[in-house]
Specification:
The chain is an alpha+beta fold and 382 residues long. It contains eleven helices and ten strands. The strands form three sheets. It has a four-stranded mixed β-sheet, with helices on one face. It has a four-stranded antiparallel β-sheet with strand order 2-3-7-6, with no helix packed on it. The radius of gyration is 21 Å and the shape is globular. The structure holds flavin-adenine dinucleotide (FAD).
Length: 382
């Protein structure tokens, strides 16, 4: 493992407490949450009490006023332990930063302290059945009626969709202005006109609630809008860099964990008078994966440090997300092979890691969209 000396002794004390929380409160229950297709709200409150949510929020908004590395530690420890159910990442890494950066003082005071305590759960709704990668084609409309918007439309695949108390809803405030007609409106789930659809059946991330959401003549005060009218697309593009980096952080941890599980398993599993790890094929495949994972760990850590100083660019975030999620999928596939039939049994962490991995090359921007972002930048001045 490379030296990660940007973490201080205080960070490591926090890491120990997160590890304890994960082992005591999350690991023993994850399987039952997978069956239930959601995580109970109680666990959000426990996570809030333990300081695992929105760690970097300023104290005036109920946070610990910590640096973003505390958030990184939470993401890493959940990933190392194979915990995919609680949608803390969307809540802490997307919803809270949007409100902190662009919300009115009233929105910040109302929602951020509750988010830090796990008393309110947030979601971000961009994707629609007919508009995912091409967000400017979204159809959900927010029409002005005095000092309110009237919202009509539909979203899908929304993480925390069943559990959320409010949604940062991307919608068109001007249907003729393309990307410049998109705004973000904080929409409370308690308002009449809001309905949750199905908790969707997925091939992986089974404990995470992922839903369709419906909006019918839903009235929201204009003061619930984040930032300027029509500024939503720009906000999404700015904050998506953080979301993409957090996905890369998760993915590199899973790759490291999968290699460690495989080394341990193959060193113990007997075959042909030796162990599976005695085969040169096993050693060479794992050596290759280990080298590639180390290289991308270095790149990921470099991006973490760039983000800490607010220097991470959307292109760098696209590069790290594209490369690390690709490696993540390759590692879990090649490692699973060494487990033989056990690797196909969901009681084994490698099997769950395999099915959970696939989404990382789609959600938060498909791999092809990452390539488009990188290439557009390369050819911008040509
Ligand atoms: C488990 C899960 C959780 C999610 N959580 C959320 C959430 O909380 N909030 C939210 O808003 N959304 C969420 N999403 C939606 C996710 O971000 C979208 O699925 C993703 O952006 C892709 O959009 P799409 O599904 O409409 O695919 P499409 O846009 O139809 O794309 C399909 C495929 O076409 C190809 N493609 C697309 N664009 C290009 C291009 N420019 N160049 C080349 N090829 C291209 C890619 O291979 C892509 O995978 C979630 C999805 C899942 C499955």
């Amino acid at each position: 493992m490379i030296n990660r000396d940007f973490f201080t002794p205080d960070h490591e004390i926090f890491r120990d407490s997160v590890k304890r929380f994960v082992q005591e409160e999350l690991v023993p229950h994850h399987h039952e949450w997978e069956e239930a297709k959601r995580v109970p709200r109680e666990i959000w409150r426990k996570a809030g009490e333990a300081g695992l949510l929105c760690c970097d929020l300023p104290e005036e908004y109920g946070g610990a006023g910590a640096d973003w590395l505390y958030n990184v530690i939470v993401i890493e420890e959940l990933a190392y332990a194979g915990i995919t159910g609680p949608g803390f990442m969307v809540h802490s890494e997307m919803v809270a930063p949007y409100i902190l950066t662009w919300g009115s003082e009233e929105l910040k005071q109302t929602w951020l302290p509750k988010m830090a305590m796990g008393e309110a759960i947030g979601a971000v709704a961009m994707t629609e059945p007919n508009a995912g990668s091409d967000l400017k084609e979204m159809r959900t409309r927010a029409e002005r009626d005095g000092d309110h918007y009237i919202i009509n439309g539909q979203k899908t695949y929304i993480s925390n969709g069943q559990n959320c108390d409010f949604i940062l809803l991307a919608c068109k405030t001007d249907k003729n202005a393309g990307a410049k007609g998109i705004s973000i409106v904080l929409t409370e789930a308690a308002r009449p006109g809001f309905a949750r659809g199905r908790n969707l059946d997925k091939i992986g991330l089974k404990a995470q609630d992922t839903s369709e959401l419906f909006f019918e003549n839903l009235r929201v005060p204009v003061t619930n809008r984040l930032g300027d009218e029509g500024g939503g697309f720009k906000m999404l593009m700015t904050k998506l860099a953080q979301e993409r980096l957090t996905q890369a952080i998760r993915s590199i941890c899973v790759a490291e964990a999968a290699i460690a599980w495989t080394v341990q398993y193959t060193a113990e599993r007997k075959a042909f008078g030796g162990t599976i790890s005695d085969f040169q094929n096993t050693q060479f495949v794992l050596a290759q994966l280990s080298a590639e994972t180390t290289a991308l760990r270095v790149f990921t850590d470099w991006c973490i440090q760039r983000h800490l100083t607010h220097d991470l660019t959307p292109v760098e975030a696209a590069k790290v997300k594209m490369l690390v999620t690709d490696l993540h999928c390759k590692v879990v596939d090649q490692c699973l092979q060494f487990f033989g039939g056990y690797g196909y049994m969901t009681e084994y962490p490698i099997a769950r890691a395999y099915i959970d991995a696939r989404i990382t090359r789609i959600a938060g921007g498909a791999a092809e969209v990452m390539k488009q972002i990188i290439a557009r930048d390369m050819f911008a001045k040509k």
